[in-house]
Amino acid sequence: MQGLAPDTKYKKPRQPTRRWQVQQIGQLWQYDTSPHRWFGPDHPPLHLLEILDDHSRVVPLARLYQRETLLAHLDFLCSAFRARGLPLALYVDYHSFFFTHVPEAFTQLGAALRFYEVSLRYAPTPQAKGKIERLHDYWQKRLPALFAAESIATITAANPLLQELCRHRNEHEMHREIASTPQASWRLALREKRSALRTAPACPWWPYVWSQWSKAKVGPDGRVALGGSRLRIDKPPGSIIVRCLHPNGDHSVLAAPPDKLAKPILLLHSPAHSTVLL
Fold first, then answer.
1. Stated pTM of the model
2. Domains of the chain: which residue ranges?
3. Helices marked H in 200-257 — which ranges?
4. CA-CA distance, 140 to 148, in Å (whole number)?
5. What is the mean pLDDT of residues 113-129?
6. What percent of the chain has pLDDT over 70?
7. pLDDT for position 17
């Protein structure tokens, strides 16, 4: 009977699937964290922070951290923005690092992004971040086997290799949805002047904005608690100062919080005595 025999006619190869995407590079970067046992089942989970340009599918940066902390996010975003520029917006979930239920309020990370005019857009569901969720799957299928083959079991050894893999993926791997390599799509957008990116500014506030800061009061003895010690500050007792913990473990003390209309007044800088494991 007609219609029951298998169809043996030539079928066209599957065409790239054009999913929704923004029209400019830097218009929207998807940002997420992937916890996984990257060094194998006998090792504790680590957190892979990664960012993806929604238009070109370029991965500006991916980096492993021991924990997902505010300092890890600050370190990662500062590095990504220095490497590729500032996007208009980050596409994130409703994690407490990004979202607060207090109207018109910002988390500390949100305030840092707002200082450099990077807005936050929130994904209503995990499925809404499909592009970066597929990127998580991409790394989870490849990295553990590669790290095992290369006898890599430390973040210090893994991150340089991960950076090389990002570069290879961006430059040489064809992306089915856009029918080109991500870097070729990025370069095409630049040639056609379809870029919303801004160069990271030479701003004196930069190292302090990308630090974990808190306000404190100078004690009656003229000192403030800083990194387990009490250090003397050139401010009267009772003065309010700003303590900054930098991702590399350094501490700084400022006379006032970041303000675009003023320059930072550094009261004290204390280098880290050991490497901070982010």
1. 0.88
2. 29-191, 206-270
3. 206-209
4. 13
5. 88
6. 90
7. 44
